[in-house]
Design goal:
CATH architecture of the largest domain: Sandwich
Helix content: 25-40%
CATH superfamily of the largest domain: F0F1 ATP synthase delta/epsilon subunit, N-terminal
Order of helices and strands: EEEEEEEHH
Structural class: alpha+beta
Oligomer: single chain
Number of domains: 2
Strand order of the largest sheet: 1-2-4-5-6
Distance between the termini: 21 Å
Shape: elongated
Length: 146
């Protein structure tokens, strides 16, 4: 890639209500949309897609570097070599507190047991989402930047 050839570069931004969590240039962005996995490169057709609670992988332009970010759902919008993810929360792998995520997983599992014993479907749904978020954070924490 030529140094000044911006037509082959995708700018990736991840934003939460707390502000910008991530912003870098990339060759490839990989996300899990509700309808399946998406690989986004420069010059991709404009799209908007809802995302699952999952890992986002950004293959950066600098020295074959890859970043992993845990996102809790949200939306991806791609247009004009700009990929923007808007999510309720997002954490880079290097910023995840593994012990805290493991405690959140244990709490969610306990809430699931309680909801099952009380036949509480609303609490069950909330606990299942909390469990998916915790498991995602634990998984992503093992994918430190390469």
């Amino acid at each position: 890639m030529a140094d000044n050839d911006q037509s082959q570069v995708l700018t990736v931004n991840i934003v939460t209500p707390d502000g910008v969590v991530y912003s870098h240039h990339a060759h490839l962005l990989v996300v899990k949309a509700i309808d399946g996995d998406l690989g986004i490169m420069a010059n991709h057709e404009a799209i908007i897609a809802p995302l699952k609670i999952s890992e986002v992988r950004v293959h950066r332009v600098d020295e074959n570097h890859m970043d992993s970010i845990a996102v809790n759902g949200g939306f991806l919008e791609v247009s004009n070599n700009q990929a923007s993810i808007t999510a309720d929360s997002a954490e880079r792998a290097k910023d995840i507190d593994l012990r805290r995520a493991q405690r959140a997983k244990a709490r969610a599992e306990e809430k699931i047991k309680t909801a099952q014993s009380h036949n509480d479907s609303d609490e069950m749904l909330r606990a299942q989402v909390a469990l998916r978020r915790a498991v995602n954070r634990i998984s992503v924490s093992g994918h430190q930047s390469q």
